[in-house]
Amino acid sequence: MEHSELKSVRGWIVIASSFLFTFFQLGSFKALGVFVPKFQEQLSIGVGAIGSIISFCGAFRFIIGPVQSRLANVVSARVLAMVSGILTGLGYICSAFSTSGITLALSMGLLSLGLGVPMVAYIKIGRQYFNVNFTLYSSITFTGGAVGMMILPPLSEFFIQTYGTQMALILLGALSFNLCVGGALLKPPDETLTSRPTSRKNYEQLDSDRNDTSLATSGRIKAILHTILSWFGVYAMRKRPVLFAYYLAFLLWNISLAGWIIFLVPYTIGLGFPAQQASFMSTLGGVGTLVGRIIMFAFPDQTLNSHRLQFMMLSIGGAASIFLYPFVNAYWLFATLSFFAGLFLGTPVPVAMVMIKFVVADEGEDFAEATGLLHTSYGIGTLVAGPIVGSIYDITGSYHIGFFIMAVLEALAAILAIAKPKADTC
Q1: Cα 410 → chain centroid
Q2: CA torsion through residues 289, 294, 296, 300, sign
Q3: How much is the pLDDT for 106?
Q4: Which residues of 399-424 are buried (b: 16+ CB within 10 A; e: fewer)?
Q5: Which residue in 36, 67, 119, 384 is deepest, having the highest Cβ count within 10 Å?
Q6: Alpha helix ranges (H) inside 75-188
Q7: CA 135, CA 358: separation in Å to the nearest integer?
Q8: What is the pLDDT of residue 155?
Q9: Are 53 and 104 in contact (CB under 8 A)?
Q10: How confident is the prediction for the chain on average, in pLDDT?
């Protein structure tokens, strides 16, 4: 399998499609930061409210992780990816016609749903093609997010300056429909075409057995509770408590990442720099993330300890970068910090994925469910980032305190990553 993985044309098509998806997934979230001043002006709502809406957009796609897991087990990646393109495009277009914070939130919810539906399916099909070279697959595909961070924010600013805010959102929606094309190219490996119905049947039989046992002992309510707890990985974390520490670390890290993504451009504008120069900060952050994820190519699947160390070092670097923002005013220093913040904050995504793989995959756990729980931790972190930093800005008129808080949370993420499994054979 190992010698043939990198020779599979279908496998590289999956990588290309996944690259396109992550391009829009992270790039779109970063580009929404460019629209913060425009939404504030047109809808007459505070930065805290706008930050909450954008955080909701970034979080909802992750919070539905358990749903993503179930969908990935019963619906093909091709169908989910094409549905993603339709919903994402419609979300952008609907947001262009928003007249209040409520309608904007609903539109952002549709956009987020589109960017969330196929997430686990992409990871699952990627592992089917690149089980041995999964770190390589993750690094290449997640590099698409870095490229999206580089391109979509300045492109959005160009659209705003040229066509206005409403048309800029419509054009982004039109571009998002290309996700349908990328999804149409997905096809599982030959062996999964025959095994898929059996896997689905076994999965459903497992649920059925659990439900039958629960019904026989404690009734329907206990069966429902059991199913919900299994969806959210409670039993998996009880079996391996280290998962709780890792998921909490990923949650705190994602608060810092999401806060930085949402408020970097408004922060730069608040220092007196023009909007185009401010949006260029996002590009530099994307370059940093791209460099970091390319460097990850040199680190194949090694051990859990090596990837834990990588996550810790990246978190410490991210904390230092965010902490220094309030102390610089020169544009070139701000630009330098943005590059390194992008490198340290954006690179851990594939690292976290491989950490979870080492903890649960070798014990036969459903990789889709484990990944769905990882995404849920991302979602909770993203959900609280906007309200925290935005509300602090509304109260103090400054982003400094919010960035200090994000730096502290990032440092705590590094500490939590110290945790090791009880029987660490990785």
Answers
A1: 16
A2: positive
A3: 92
A4: beebbebbbebbbbbbebbeeeeeee
A5: 119
A6: 77-96, 101-116, 119-129, 134-163, 165-176, 178-184
A7: 11
A8: 92
A9: yes
A10: 81
Cα(155)–Cα(148) distance, integer angstroms: 10
DSSP 149: H
Indicate if the pLDDT at residue 366 is higher than 60. Answer: no
Query: By the 8 A CB rule, do 123 and 140 touch?
Result: no
pLDDT at 351: 82
Residue 224 one-letter amino acid: I
Residue 65 in contact with residue 376, Cβ under 8 Å? Answer: yes
Measured between its terminal Cα atoms, the distance across the chain in Å is 22
DSSP assignments along 190-245, one per residue: HHHHHHHHHHHHHHHHHHHHHHHHHHHHT-HHHHHHHHHHHHTTHHHHHH-THHHH
Q: Residue 194 pLDDT more than 50?
A: no
Look at the block and give the residue holding tokens 């998962």.
243
Binned at pLDDT 50, 70 and 90, residue 199 comes out as very low
Residue 422 has pLDDT above 70, yes or no: no
* CB proximity list for 47: less than 8 A, separation 6 or greater: 36, 40, 266, 390, 393, 394
Whether the predicted pLDDT of 131 surpasses 50: yes
Q: Compute the distance between CA of residue 86 and CA of residue 122 in angstroms, rounded to an integer.
A: 17
Give the orientation angle of helix 242-270 with respect to helix 36-43, to 10 degrees: 70
pLDDT category, 84, cuts 50, 70, 90?
Answer: very high
Scanning 241-366, the segments in alpha helix (DSSP H) are: 242-270, 275-295, 304-324, 331-346, 348-360
Whether the CB-CB separation of 360 and 236 falls below 8 Å is answered with: yes
Query: In angstroms, what CA-CA distances link 121 with 65, 128, 187, 349, 385?
Result: 11, 11, 12, 17, 26
Q: Pull the structure tokens for residue 283.
A: 């590009």
Q: Is the torsion defined by CA of 98, 103, 105, 106 positive or negative?
A: negative
